[in-house]
Specification:
By secondary structure, the chain is α+β, with helices and mostly antiparallel strands. The protein has a single domain, classed as Leishmanolysin , domain 2 (Leishmanolysin, domain 2, Alpha-Beta Complex). The chain has five helices and eight strands; from the N terminus they run ββαβααααβββββ. Strands 1-2-3 form a three-stranded antiparallel beta sheet. A hairpin with a 5-residue loop joins β4 and β5. α1 packs antiparallel against α3.
Length: 208
């Protein structure tokens, strides 16, 4: 069985220093696709000119980890590892197809990816805890994350900022400790199966 090692022009390991967790700062190791079109599209999407590339999913079994976009950053892109919202084929996935050399793509057919758009380097390069803490200190919304657990019977739903769907916060409390990198203040960022513990999000959506 042959194992192929990708070129560093395709895949790079990046270390995020001072990744903020409830237990302190850690070095967060991530893998990123750094091909030219992917890099251009992802920088434009987040509004972060220093972003190295598009982060890959680091959780899940074979078939999910390292083969999908990171759920925390690309939530409803069709090539994330789990389904939680109305999925879109965005220009990010089209860029990957073009970079493969096997496809010609028409970017005008890419669907808008709203999650994380224009939220800058702070959003894409830091932990959800750091993002949430920073926003709360400024008395801003921690969007797209949330900090209010849903009230049962029935769970509270609100309109999202596009006003075309209802959403709810899927924050949950755990009785056992999660890995440090997924702990946030007195709350922890919940897992969505094989995606990311750090996706504290406005979860299920449905058209109004």
């Amino acid at each position: 069985l042959q194992v192929y090692t990708p070129s560093d022009k395709v895949l790079q390991q990046i270390v995020r220093k001072n990744w903020k967790t409830r237990a302190g700062l850690i070095d967060k190791i991530i893998l990123m696709l750094v091909t030219p079109k992917v890099q251009t599209v992802v920088r434009e999407h987040f509004g972060c000119s220093t972003l190295e590339g598009a982060e890959l999913e680091n959780q899940g079994n074979i078939g999910t980890a390292l083969t999908h976009w990171e759920k925390r950053l690309f939530e409803h892109e069709i090539m994330t590892g789990t389904y939680t919202q109305e999925s879109v084929i965005s220009n990010l996935t089209l860029a990957l197809l073009e970079d493969s050399g096997w496809y010609d793509v028409s970017y005008e057919y890419g669907k808008p990816l709203l999650w994380g758009r224009n939220l800058g380097c702070e959003f894409v390069k830091t932990s959800c805890k750091e993002w949430i803490d920073s926003k709360l200190e400024k008395k801003d919304s921690p969007y797209p994350f949330c900090i209010s657990p849903p009230k049962p019977n029935p769970p509270k739903r609100i309109c999202d900022y596009t006003y075309d769907k209802v959403v709810m916060c899927n924050l949950v409390e755990y009785s056992t400790a999660l890995p440090f990198e997924y702990q946030s203040a007195n709350i922890t960022c919940p897992p969505k199966r094989a995606s990311s513990f750090s996706s504290v999000i406005f979860g299920r959506e449905s058209k109004i």
